[in-house]
Amino acid sequence: MAPRCEMFMYMMHMWIVYTLLDWVQVEDTTEASKKALKNYIMNERELDTRINLDAIGIGKEDEEGKQKLRDIADKHEADLPVVQGRFIATGNREDIMAMRALLRKQKVQLKPFPEVKGTLRAVQQQVVIEAMESEPLNAMEDGYKGWTATVEAVDILTSSAKSVTLVVARHQSHLGLRHVLTFEENLGMEPEMGYSSCVSLAPPKGSSLSPVKAKIGWHLYPERSQVLVLGESDPSLGDKDMPKLAEEDNFYSGYK
To answer: Disulfide: which of 174, 181, 200, 230 matches 150 by Cβ 3.0-4.6 Å?
Structure first.
């Protein structure tokens, strides 16, 4: 039994030694990370170029906010979060939220977080229509809004013929040369373009306008989930300083 006990004690001893070494290494890494972050904050050039100030809620023009950040780094270095190196260059989301939490804890007034999360209300689909030879299309913007459209087409996903009837939610007319219909719902298919597919448009009940028939033209994004209809922004889904969804056209073009 004695040799076994000695081996057991030796193994326990080595386990404790290596555990302590790991702990020391983690502590050293933590201290090094906080020290590096402090150095970036205290250096004017590094602060403006290597930390995403807009994301953490201060902004490059907010001298008072930047001074408060310097004061926190100088007097409360132990409270600085452990952030990844990529945070300095690009702004990793988790690290940015940790910085915002630190600033909020120190009573710093933060600017809205440049990210918006909203509720998904609907997924819509678009088709481009082109005039038949004998039936010109309405060139007015939203000229076919509220009309009932019956799409008869070959689904390129299944190679089967389908017929779907939906209501037009929006009609975009680009100088009367290109017409894009957005339906209130998803068609459930990707219609084939050309004369093999067509859209029959019927006016709302009580209208004096005549029905129109058009062929389906080329669309850059023919997928079924082309238009995402968002509801109000929901702060419970993200940062409490999250702004409201913008209502301007094309405001989020280029956003990820």
So the answer is: 200
